[in-house]
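We both want to read discrete structure tokens more fluently, so let's practise on a single case. Once you have written the record down, we can walk along the chain together.
***
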Amino acid sequence: MNIIYVSIPISLILLGVGIWFFFWAVRSGQYDDLDSPAYSILLDEETDRKRQRKSRAKDQDEQQ
């Protein structure tokens, strides 16, 4: 029976910490974009490099 006097406060503290972490994650933007990271693994790295090169070349042409 004495263990209840220890386990209830510990569980309430853990609940408070969990709620605090949830609100911290929401405020810091962890849930803003849930779809893009899932699609990024499907993209080919080589294709991404070609796009970056094209955009860099385009930027350099616009600057000149």
